[in-house]
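The data layer described in this paper is built around a simple, fixed record for each protein. Because each token names a local backbone shape, the row as a whole describes the fold. We quote a single record here, exactly as it is kept in our systems:

***
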Amino acid sequence: MQNLRYLDGVSTLKLSQKLCVGCGLCIEVCPHGVFVLDEHKAHIQDLDGCMECGACVNNCPTSAISVTPGVG
């Protein structure tokens, strides 16, 4: 299976550590494994792996994640 990637350095994905409650929903819904949970907070482990689908944004209960689909 080929690892599909987009251009490096263009993703608009942002995560607010202040707003994150560590629920892990972003990890569950992200199709590319962009997020990890560490010390009860989500972290972006692979920003360039983000395809800007918005699944994480739509499932984050605290609006800690933002992305502008189609820009990156």
